[in-house]
């Protein structure tokens, strides 16, 4: 997101974002707004210093899997997702980084029967829990999969990635995000009550904001990939004049184009919940 129900740094269902371009968007998000991965994995290391067995639930293209394997060089990491293509990308990336011996993949539909995962020291669920049909059942399954004293980290996006200045077309991006929220994009609750109902203890919540000014080429690719995907979803949900403004923005490839001029500051924000199995 699995980050916009794609953000997923991962995801099981990837909600509203099936189709071509999902893997690229996940990879771009990790490259550009991936600073949160350092922050959340560092927090995990403070809370659970030396996990031996880690599971990335809804691994998507594997950004979280690889960040966890990098942060914890003594751990084995299982990337769990229902997409064989995403899992293949994750495994290939692990091989390229010399991590293939510590990373393995497991294909599973988390809305069906969960695989046997007993004894995990750390479970990571980034932009995937809200995608599931029954998140509370999933939390109970993750509780059972953790060893006593094990740590669960649930990560969600707070709002969609932002590319445009606040005043552009009188706040165009804000209105588009409001329309997407009305369609259920990126919708998630405060997970603390559900975590506690599942039996977790010592639940703590932290925010991890990200800002980036990537290379013009990367910034343009990310902006055009994301904004190009939301247009079709917004038909009938956003004002026609806003859809026209979005179409005009995407069609403009001139030297002064907002999306190609190299001045984009891309913003994002994640919230993470840490919880322990007593």
Automatic annotation (TrEMBL):
<keyword id="KW-0489">Methyltransferase</keyword>
<dbReference type="GO" id="GO:0008168">
    <property type="term" value="F:methyltransferase activity"/>
</dbReference>
<dbReference type="InterPro" id="IPR013217">
    <property type="entry name" value="Methyltransf_12"/>
</dbReference>
<protein>
    <submittedName>
        <fullName>Class I SAM-dependent methyltransferase</fullName>
    </submittedName>
</protein>
<dbReference type="Pfam" id="PF08242">
    <property type="entry name" value="Methyltransf_12"/>
</dbReference>
<keyword id="KW-0808">Transferase</keyword>
<dbReference type="GO" id="GO:0032259">
    <property type="term" value="P:methylation"/>
</dbReference>
<feature type="domain" description="Methyltransferase type 12">
    <location>
        <begin position="55"/>
        <end position="152"/>
    </location>
</feature>
<dbReference type="InterPro" id="IPR029063">
    <property type="entry name" value="SAM-dependent_MTases_sf"/>
</dbReference>
């Amino acid at each position: 997101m699995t980050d916009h129900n794609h953000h997923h740094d991962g995801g099981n269902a990837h909600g509203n974002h099936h189709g071509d371009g999902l893997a690229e968007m996940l990879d771009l998000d990790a490259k550009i707004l991936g600073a949160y991965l350092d922050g959340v994995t560092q927090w995990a290391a403070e809370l659970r210093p030396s996990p031996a067995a880690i599971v990335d639930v809804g691994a998507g293209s594997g950004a979280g899997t690889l960040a966890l394997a990098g942060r914890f060089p003594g751990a084995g990491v299982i990337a769990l997702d229902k997409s064989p293509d995403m899992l293949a990308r994750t495994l290939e990336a692990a091989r390229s980084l010399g991590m293939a011996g510590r990373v393995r993949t497991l294909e599973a539909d988390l809305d069906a029967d969960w695989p046997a995962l007993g004894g995990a020291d750390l479970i990571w669920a980034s932009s995937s829990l809200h995608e599931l049909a029954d998140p509370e059942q999933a939390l109970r399954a993750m509780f059972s999969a953790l060893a006593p004293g094990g740590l669960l980290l649930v990560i969600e996006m707070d709002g969609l990635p932002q590319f445009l200045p606040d005043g552009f077309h009188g706040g165009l991006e804000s209105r588009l995000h409001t329309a997407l929220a009305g369609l259920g994009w990126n919708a998630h609750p405060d997970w603390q009550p559900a975590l506690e109902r599942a039996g977790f203890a010592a639940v703590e919540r932290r925010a991890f904001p990200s800002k980036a000014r990537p290379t013009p080429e990367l910034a343009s690719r990310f902006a055009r990939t994301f904004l190009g995907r939301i247009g079709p979803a917004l038909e009938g949900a956003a004002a026609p004049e806003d859809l026209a403004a979005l179409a005009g923005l995407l069609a403009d490839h001139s030297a002064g184009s907002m999306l190609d001029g190299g001045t984009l500051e891309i913003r994002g924000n994640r919230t993470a919940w840490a919880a322990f199995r007593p």
